């Protein structure tokens, strides 16, 4: 169907880019989720007023384009702090905080969805705060939060396409490099798009399935 | 007792002097055993990739020569045009071997070596347009690579022309020629070397070099942090040696061919 | 530790240009949002019908919009479709890319909202003599838009943030494009992008706060 100059070498090159996309995403989602849970719990425990500084800080990551966050972090780390950190490191750092900002919202929403009466009942049965969190809040909040969390993780994977700006050669950048050499934009872009789609689509469907199932009982 | 105090003082002074004389960039590079060069890899024949997607080109060879002279290993860091100087400022690279025009505005931020290459600017147009000269681009949609010498100059012309003329900066040289071949642009101004390389490659149908652009000769220099005098001195001497030893001619023949452009400005010392 | 000298003055002198860019950014975001809502309603209606081709169109659109990067969609809108000889200016390409993305996400939100509206309402409307389109227009649609008001606000913020991707298709009049051009001239990277970041922050805050005010006014009872 397509008469292409794409060689096996080039496919390996694309696969490497895809690998970088997956690694950057995995690192950022893991660190971002841990941070997000901590931030989310802090926000619920402290209340709106006391946690305002944290809320404001996290808000920045949701209100400024990721591209600008990456350029600024890169310039700050290298020019102002004079640290020699790789672009990969900076990319993971920014994406982790970016993830944590959204994750904190999801966690907060999840905890808020647990009825206060249920939690009071748990406490009046003699459970400690930790036990209440562990046995009552976590299982219930997870049901509410997990589908959104899957959406977030997939969102981070798609947004990781922007880390090219700190010299990380991920999938979309690898595709552009090949377009430069082979001049087959449509064909190469379709391969690239198909890759994102193949990973994202089943997981998104799975998230939708969970949401449906858990909202029914 | 007095003697001891004096010795202690002298030792302390020596120690102080020792820390004060900090290693500079040149020392850092030599001791780290690695030279990181910013190179633009979608700018044939200065920087591009071979069929294994490995970097090749004039700038790549130039970086390798520089690393060999320093006795270290070269590392090519690909930087798009707009990211060249930010990459240096954020310590991502040690030196830029990226066909960078030595403008006074840029020299406020980075230090330039003496010119190591000189470009002429030409107009490349899509076939079927009536563009035969620089001036006839008036009223057309034209483009160049964001943040380059020619883009800044061309945009000024377009603003002056008005009258339906439109300027579009793209992120990479490849995107510019792609847009030109697709008919999204009517013409572009670029260095003659990249224009000829792209027309010759046959990757882009229906484009041809039609005229030269009335811009000054575009001298490009290596660049490094502007306060690293030791390193900048070394770069100057290195460029001079490349010419003196005939390596410059050799590389020019290998990647470009034809008459080697002179790198000196008539009537000026440097 | 800090040997970097900040030159805020040099960067702040360019503020008027950047504010001009912010206006274009708002323009793209608002138009793409309005068009996005229209297309999303259309896609939602397509999904409600029993027609296979209409269903397929809606599903394809929504799934591609939601499962590929926005940068990819915008790049496609410019360089991808040009392979078929269809040319869009950078502004139009960016607008198409963001509208496509908006419509996909909003349609999914609308679907969720529809679930909260009992079927019986539409049927009641029809038994009162309304056509299916009329009952959708007068009974379902207003409720659907109200339920999805918060997701719509979020999508509007997204649209603002997505305008920064226009540089990849040759856009230089929006806020990010202007900032990048100024950076190429002066290389005060940190200062310029910090200012751009602050402007983006203010824009998104104004949008979320005014959305809250509008919601409080429209939906009180």
UniProtKB/TrEMBL annotation, chain A:
Keyword Membrane: yes
Residue ranges occupied by any ABC transmembrane type-1 domain in the UniProt entry: 18-199
Species name: Celeribacter halophilus
Pfam families: BPD_transp_1
Bilayer-spanning residue ranges: 20-42, 54-77, 83-104, 186-204
Alphabetical list of PROSITE patterns matching this protein: ABC_TM1
GO molecular-function terms, A-Z: L-cystine transmembrane transporter activity
Protein name stated in the entry: Amino acid ABC transporter membrane protein 2, PAAT family
Keyword annotations from UniProtKB, A to Z: Amino-acid transport, Cell membrane, Membrane, Transmembrane, Transmembrane helix, Transport
TrEMBL record, chain B:
Top-level taxonomic group: Bacteria
Solute-binding protein family 3/N-terminal domain sequence ranges: 34-259
Keyword Cell cycle: no
InterPro entries the UniProt entry points to: Solute-binding_3/MltF_N
Position of the signal peptide: 1-23
Keywords on record: Signal
Keyword 4Fe-4S annotated: no
PANTHER family attached to this UniProt entry: GLUTAMINE-BINDING PERIPLASMIC PROTEIN, MEMBRANE-BOUND LYTIC MUREIN TRANSGLYCOSYLASE F
Protein name in UniProt: Amino acid ABC transporter substrate-binding protein, PAAT family
Native species: Celeribacter halophilus
Automatic annotation (TrEMBL), chain C:
Keywords assigned: Amino-acid transport, Cell membrane, Membrane, Transmembrane, Transmembrane helix, Transport
Keyword Membrane: yes
Main location: membrane
CDD domains reported in the protein's UniProt record: TM_PBP2 (cd06261)
The keyword Protease appears for this protein: no
Domain ABC transmembrane type-1 per the UniProt entry, residue ranges: 18-211
Coiled coil residues, start to end: none
InterPro entries: AA_ABC_transptr_permease_3TM (IPR010065), ArtM/GltK/GlnP/TcyL/YhdX-like (IPR043429), MetI-like (IPR000515), MetI-like_sf (IPR035906)
Localization of this protein: Cell inner membrane; Cell membrane
Membrane topology: Multi-pass membrane protein
Any GO CC annotation of this UniProt entry: ATP-binding cassette (ABC) transporter complex
Domain of life of the organism encoding this protein: Bacteria
Transmembrane segment boundaries: 22-46, 156-173, 193-215
GO molecular function, one term: L-cystine transmembrane transporter activity
PANTHER family tied to this protein: L-CYSTINE TRANSPORT SYSTEM PERMEASE PROTEIN TCYL, MEMBRANE COMPONENT OF AMINO ACID ABC TRANSPORTER
Similarity comment text for this entry: Belongs to the binding-protein-dependent transport system permease family. HisMQ subfamily.
Protein name (record): Amino acid ABC transporter membrane protein 1, PAAT family
Native species: Celeribacter halophilus
